## 1
Amino acid sequence: MKGNIVKFSLALALTVLTIPAFLKAEVGGTKSDLDLGKKVRHELVMLPYYSVFDDLAYKVEGNTVTLYGEVTRPTLKSDAGRVVKHIEGVQNVVNNIQVLPLSPFDNQIRRAEYRAIFGYGPMYRYALGAVPSIHIIVNNGHVTLSGVVDSQADKNIANIRANGVPGVFSVTNDLRVAGRG
């Protein structure tokens, strides 16, 4: 019992440490832009259907927020635009989020990539939390990994595991190492 509590506490700590960095953002240098950026980020990660198979990013310029990324559900694109539009201080929202095509083949690859990456012991910790820090984007058989990992070794492991999935045409590894740009 005590060991389970220690494991859970460690997993929770790792999750809390990796969550702030995984959503890509470009925010201007003023304090108001930074504050607005924090509010936008919060609203995006709180979207109920935002998952490991979606990747959202945003850019704050004054009172204009530009959303971009890829999502599997059209409703997630509209929900993202709607919640950001209602943030105090946001006057314009440019919604450049791409909705990925519906494809049973891509869905099969998504599941296989998830099992290949997060089913491997050392990578399991990245699957913890409401929104994992590694995102798997599949578009017509082409896979893109995005998000944040703790080390270059983890980035390499994710790439090797993703390339080992049958039926994948290509893998682009856009994972960032925490603490590095």
## 2
Amino acid sequence: MRQLRVEAFPPINFGAVVEHMSKGVFMPVIYRPLFNHLRLVTCRTFETIAANTIPLFGMDESYVREFYGESAAELVMPREKPHEKILDIISRPEHYAGIVAGIRAGLAKKHSYQERIRELIRIVEA
């Protein structure tokens, strides 16, 4: 890993996660297979998008499309030649940053506090 100039950090406090993620050009997002299968939403689902980095999803493409939107499929790590995707992200970060900006806008609309309150009201009134 050192030859590839990959840095690993010790565990960090919860409040510093987004700040530390922002130090990298890209950040792998890998879920446990059960989480992927059950389509669970965790803190990590939002943290990487909130960070100033480009997520590289190691999750099922259909889950990524469903949760993050169609454009997010371009950020799924392919099973074949994943190194080519990493090299492309590093060589064209502005292209991928545009995709991330679109994902952020979609998440802000779909998963805002206001939307969650509206959903809660619909549940309570039903």
## 3
Amino acid sequence: MPQVTLEQARAAKAAAQRRFEQLPSLVGVGLTRVDGEYAIKINLREPLTPAADVPADIDGVPVVVEVVGAIRKRASHP
């Protein structure tokens, strides 16, 4: 049985969005699963500096950081 509910993860995601919105390399904040548990996923364009303060969890929900690179809009096909 999961320790972190989807509702808890969603609430923590909203807190994470507010906390990390000023990071210049932030691409997005989402939810993921790690070992069957919900977690917050912080997607970045480039690695953070060593001085960046990213907690291991927010309100008991684990935080996962991934460098995904720049997100670009795909060209649509006619």
